[in-house]
Amino acid sequence: MSGFRATYGTAPAGTWAAPGRVNLIGEHTDYNDGFVMPFALPQTVRAAARRRDDGLLRLHSAHGDRRTVELDAAELRPEGVTGWARYPAGVVWALAAEGHRVGGADLYFESDVPAGAGLSSSAALECATAAAFRDLWELDLDDTRLALVAQRAENEFVGVPCGIMDQLASVCAQSGHALLLDTRTLAQRQVRLDLDHHGLRLLVVDTRVRHELADGAYAALRSGCEHAARLLGLPALRDLSVAELTGALDQLPSEHRPLVRHVVTENARVADAAAALDAGDAAALGPVLTEGHHSLRDDYRVSCPETDLAVSTAVEAGALGARMTGAGFGGSVIALVPEERTAGVAEAVTAAFAAAGHRAPRTFTATAAAGARRVG
């Protein structure tokens, strides 16, 4: 990237890219030891980087205020870095905390992953940094371990208690596939996601309603789930089956029941979605998506007027199903749409937003791309 030379006065040692992700199904299940099925987007965070042996960590983004952040790699501490730089700095901190020999670097970032859209731009930033450091410092880290380092950065340095889904999707996804992940064991299976073959498209609607997960709402949801599992005597809500759900809900305080109902039924929806794709029946995903949105809206209560409007309008305009994707509180909606109706659904959602006085959404079709890699 030319911006690296303009910023640092020399060429980088290389450029690494890590993608954002769409979570096809399996929302708020990862921190409950459950099942998820994301896929990687073609949109990536790209990190041009060069190793430094003097301990200085310099971070520059082509976006935002465009100031270079300078830090001492050996003195990084949680709460000691603010703004976007927390994410790459946290990766360097996490690598050192796990005993890896790392030091400084010059990094220059560019991105076309929409920030705050529920498409995991933060995980992409972390994973691009981690991939660059793995090569620059010749670290013995496989892809799964790399994703766990990135997750630790977000959990302990940034302060967001996210599960492992976003980072594993950004690192381990394969082109043309969704990643079926058991977040307890980290067992992974690539599930063929060839919507074009079935005459379908996955339309992403970025509502442009931004969210901030570190404000306590996400942490409160996770805490509520963990408390419910303890009350039920379970290691995690993943250990509760659909058949056991009604009896379990009767044992819980009213405030915990909708959280538990969502997690248990969402794990079942992941299994249904994987079975549909394995059987070559991609159209059967539609109702699964819509059911998932209703659960997120009514039980988990992480939807908002804009995402609800996008889902209902998309379905009324011909989508086979739709749901919000990501942690919620804004972000994006995905809609499974017959190819010939894609433009019409996008236009209908845009018109509905205008009529409601909402900011115009951004729409695009998503395809399953490859995970983190060196690109230059």
UniProtKB/TrEMBL annotation:
The keyword Nucleotide-binding applies. Mg(2+) binds at S122, E154. Residues 4-51 form the Galactokinase N-terminal domain. GO terms for cellular component: cytosol. It is found in: Cytoplasm. This is Galactokinase. Catalyzes the transfer of the gamma-phosphate of ATP to D-galactose to form alpha-D-galactose-1-phosphate (Gal-1-P). The active site is at D166. It catalyses: alpha-D-galactose + ATP = alpha-D-galactose 1-phosphate + ADP + H(+). It holds the Pfam family GHMP_kinases_C. It is an enzyme of class 2 (transferase). It comes from Streptomyces tardus. Pathway: Carbohydrate metabolism; galactose metabolism. ATP binds at S61, G116, A117, G118, L119, S120, S121, S122. One of its GO terms (molecular function) is ATP binding.
